[in-house]
Design brief:
It contains 20 helices and eleven strands. The protein is of the alpha+beta class and 423 residues long. Bound molecules: alpha-D-glucopyranose (GLC).
Length: 423
């Protein structure tokens, strides 16, 4: 009894001190995403940081699409808004919003060296470390193991194989009574997600990466046109026409309900597909995306970083939160429970991480060799270039133009976006 009382007193004292600290602490507003389990996992970690530091964390509600988030942040930054301290930054943004972010070098104290050097380099502009790597991403192919076995098929290595297998299984399942069955779902809404998917098709057909590393506009070529025409052939055949308005979560909704043979998505969809309430739990496999005829498999490099707004009234605490959220311990927890790819190479050798996500090991090369979008070379113009590309791809997918015609127009459009011979 006495021991219990003593415990209670100690507990009360600790809580009392925490209470005092909380009053003395500051409030940090963080923006961390709303796709899948983004909010839930971010909140868990910010709660831990609050309990540790006595500071309060508020969460900013943001849209789902990265293109819309960028629009929101650009408005807030233009107004030098103090309404957000810590911002989630897409891998393609450092060059676009660089002047609004704090240099984290003094706060990181070398911790960035634990992360993939290429991501750190991407986040470093003009010698300033503008964001800490939080998780990395690469497009992968999800497939229904049970259905491929049932129809005697293997995961496809080429887009032609994917098309044939998707059709065979979809037709068979429809005949067997599932009228909602689709062959393949992906992201084809006119937004940044389509840039990612279409770059994978183009690159896997040997069509390059829109603008090459030297700044030359390279997208107007026959392989790229063929890739887009091939993808257009999926619409209304193996993919629903609704895919023209699908983002990541729309595709996941269909696949996770059990209504698609294949899905292109990012790794976050894995842990959700294996959740207790998922109709496809135990029935899903993950492989590298197929290759085009004569090309090789390509995954677009995605991923998110955390940065501190220059207009934050509490940069020291905000930076401390960034360092906590991007730490190895938090990344490990997010990898195990949320299948977020760590940005720390050592975690790809961690037994618990690999057990929860077997494909992190199998597809390690896919993750480290993912194809970057041309964000570094186009700098502040990246979003305009990407928008021109996703619109050109959308025109082909929706049957408004053929690949060749659309890419010829795109070439001129990107040229007019370019400021001078070297961007
Ligand atoms: C994922 C990727 C990000 C990409 C976005 C497109 O969030 O991590 O880099 O821009 O998808 O929708």
């Amino acid at each position: 009894m006495r021991i219990l009382n003593l415990k209670a007193t100690v507990f009360a004292l600790v809580c009392g001190f925490a209470g005092v600290a909380a009053q003395a602490g500051v409030t940090i507003t963080v923006s961390c995403g709303t796709v899948g389990q983004d909010f839930e996992f971010c909140k868990k970690a910010t709660d831990e940081w609050s309990a540790k530091t006595g500071n309060t964390v508020k969460h900013l509600t943001i849209p789902q699409s990265t293109s819309d988030i960028l629009g929101l942040f650009r408005q807030m930054f233009a107004a030098k808004s103090t309404a957000v301290d810590v911002v989630n930054i897409d891998v393609v943004w450092p060059g676009i919003i660089k002047e609004h972010l704090l240099d984290l070098t003094p706060y990181a104290k070398g911790a960035e060296k634990e992360h993939f050097p290429a991501i750190v380099a991407n986040n470093t502009v003009g010698g300033k470390l503008l964001a800490m790597p939080w998780f990395t991403d690469a497009g992968v192919l999800y497939y229904r193991k049970d259905l491929l076995t049932k129809y005697g098929e293997k995961p496809p290595a080429t887009w032609s194989e994917l098309t044939a297998t998707a059709k065979k299984v979809m037709d068979g399942e429809r005949k067997a009574g599932n009228g909602d069955m689709q062959g393949f779902v992906f992201q084809a809404k006119a937004y940044e997600g389509l840039t990612c998917d279409a770059l994978e098709w183009v690159s896997s057909y040997g069509g390059g990466s829109i603008v090459d590393a030297s700044g030359k506009i390279s997208i107007n070529n026959p392989n790229a046109a063929k890739a887009l025409d091939t993808a257009a052939g999926w619409i209304g055949t193996i993919a629903p026409t609704g895919v023209l308005n699908y983002g990541e979560e729309d595709a996941r909704g269909v696949f996770q309900k059990g209504n698609s043979v294949f899905m292109r998505n990012w790794p976050y969809a894995w842990s959700l597909s294996q959740g207790a309430d998922s109709p496809v739990k135990g029935k899903v496999g993950v492989v590298a995306l197929p290759r085009g005829d004569g090309g090789k498999s390509a995954a677009t490099l995605g991923g998110w970083q955390l940065a501190v707004s220059k207009y934050s009234p509490n940069p020291k605490e905000a930076a401390d939160l960034v360092m906590y959220l991007t730490s190895s311990a938090v990344q490990k927890d997010r990898a195990i429970r949320g299948s977020y790819n760590p940005t720390i190479p050592a975690l790809y050798k961690d037994a618990d991480v690999l057990k929860a996500n077997p494909f992190f090991g199998d597809l390690y090369n896919t993750f480290v060799n993912a194809v970057p979008r041309p964000a570094t070379v186009t700098g502040v113009k990246y979003n305009e270039v990407s928008a021109a590309f996703w619109n050109a791809a959308h025109d082909v997918l929706s049957g408004k133009a053929r690949g060749k015609e659309s890419l010829e127009k795109l070439d001129g459009k990107i040229d007019s976006i370019r400021r001078g011979p070297n961007w």
